[in-house]
Amino acid sequence: MDLSLLNIFNPGENRRLQFRAECFNLLKHANLRLPQNDLKSRAYGQILQAGSARLLQLAVKVAF
Hints:
Number of domains: 1
Largest sheet: 3 strands, antiparallel
Order of helices and strands: EEE
Structural class: mainly beta
């Protein structure tokens, strides 16, 4: 589950300040990669890697 929060401030007449916070994989579920498919490998059929865990991102944009 991903989440995004956005707030816009108006500090002046012709100015706008936008603050944004984003979170990817909010509940921190395991994102498993595909299993090994090399028949010669000892790890055939095993999942040896997982995807990225939780990712947070902040951004500020100024428009004038």
